[in-house]
Specification:
Blueprint: H1 17-27, E1 31-33, H2 34-41, H3 47-56, E2 75-77, H4 78-97
Length: 108
């Protein structure tokens, strides 16, 4: 029996416990207000651009609120932020490990 209206299950890799702990020390809560998150990690984006990047999926971060009000404060869960950081770090490691091929030594 298949329910076609059900959203597909998305499981992110579990974030590193150390990343979660450091974020908790920095923000002091499991829900991080988007404004604080933007100030800390996305300073180069203004508020509207930051939200647009999240909505478009360029910044892959689920957003939540604690009530259904349109003006409710928007939050990111600490585990989602930690997973985003860990995933980006992993991708950076993979890119560094790739052979550079066409890049020439600047000392030549």
């Amino acid at each position: 029996m298949k329910d076609n209206n059900q959203a597909p299950l998305r499981l992110l890799p579990a974030p590193d416990a150390a990343t979660v702990e450091l974020l908790y020390r920095n923000f002091g809560d499991v829900l991080i207000p988007l404004a604080k998150l933007r100030e800390q990690y996305f300073r180069y984006l203004n508020e509207q651009t930051f939200v647009a990047e999240i909505i478009s999926g360029r910044i892959q971060l689920p957003i939540t609120t604690l009530d259904n009000s349109r003006k409710a404060t928007k939050f990111a869960h600490i585990r989602h932020v930690a997973a985003l950081i860990d995933i980006r770090a992993y991708k950076a490691d993979e890119e560094l490990a790739r052979p550079q091929g066409d890049i020439q030594n600047k000392d030549d």
